[in-house]
């Protein structure tokens, strides 16, 4: 027989998610600055991840950090949106004279899904999300005058990511459904294309 969860459990989930986000932001601010991935604003489309298909807006803060807003849907009956702070890391290179337009990244943020059904309550889910992946810029024309691998790459980008998420708060459309939250980490793979709008 399962015991019902106490009312304090949702607060514990929120607190743990908030603490993780603060820790991540603290590490990105205090860690040494890696090489730049891009600069400016990118827009693109994503398949998978927080929805079946979504539109993404990404704004770079200083070349190696960005914030990202994603809006999508699974079946056009709900809206799925995520706000993530991302950190891009050093480009891959074989030696000091070779450059590659590949930038691993990691992020942290919140994912919110809302659904309104007829004659039912609003369904709402809030999850902590941690995307981990690789970003590839093209076409790539390295500037030999750059000795810190920080020159901008191409105006187009392809990427793959694995979005780890964990539910923090769930409000189900059926008020009689009081099942406890599933505390497992759920991986959601995604692929994307992005275009640099403003450099």
Distance between the termini: 59 Å
According to DSSP, the number of beta strands is: 8
Largest sheet: 8 strands, antiparallel, barrel
**Overall mean pLDDT score?**
76
Low-pLDDT residue intervals, each spanning 5 or more residues: 1-8, 27-37, 92-98, 146-150
Radius of gyration: 19 Å
Approximate helicity band:
10-25%
Number of helical stretches of at least 4 residues:
1
Sheet/helix structural class: mainly beta
Order of helices and strands: HEEEEEEEE
Shape: elongated
Textual characterization of the structure:
With 199 residues, the chain is mainly beta. The chain has a domain at 40-67 and 75-94 and 107-120 and 129-145. The protein has 1 helix and 8 strands, in the order αββββββββ. An 8-stranded antiparallel β-barrel has the order 1-2-3-4-5-6-7-8. A hairpin with a 5-residue loop joins strand 5 (102-116) and strand 6. The radius of gyration is 19 Å and the shape is elongated. The model is unreliable at 1-8, 27-37, 92-98 and 146-150 (pLDDT under 50).
């Amino acid at each position: 027989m399962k015991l019902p969860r106490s009312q304090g459990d949702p607060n514990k989930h929120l607190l743990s998610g908030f603490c993780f986000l603060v820790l991540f932001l603290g590490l990105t601010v205090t860690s040494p600055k890696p090489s730049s991935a891009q600069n400016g604003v990118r827009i693109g489309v994503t398949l998978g991840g927080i929805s079946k298909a979504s539109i993404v807006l990404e704004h770079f803060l200083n070349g190696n950090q960005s914030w990202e807003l994603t809006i999508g849907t699974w079946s056009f009956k709900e809206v799925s949106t995520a706000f993530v702070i991302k950190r891009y890391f050093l480009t891959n290179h074989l030696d000091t004279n070779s450059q590659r337009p590949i930038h691993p990244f990691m992020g942290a943020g919140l994912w919110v899904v809302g659904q309104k059904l007829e004659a039912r309550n609003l369904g709402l889910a809030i999850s902590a999300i941690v995307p981990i992946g690789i970003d590839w810029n093209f076409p790539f024309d390295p500037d030999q005058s750059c000795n810190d691998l920080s020159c901008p790459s191409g105006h187009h980008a392809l990427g793959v990511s694995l979005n780890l998420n964990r539910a923090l708060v769930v409000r189900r459309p059926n008020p009689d459904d009081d099942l406890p939250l599933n505390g497992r980490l759920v991986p959601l793979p995604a692929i994307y294309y992005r275009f640099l709008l403003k450099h």
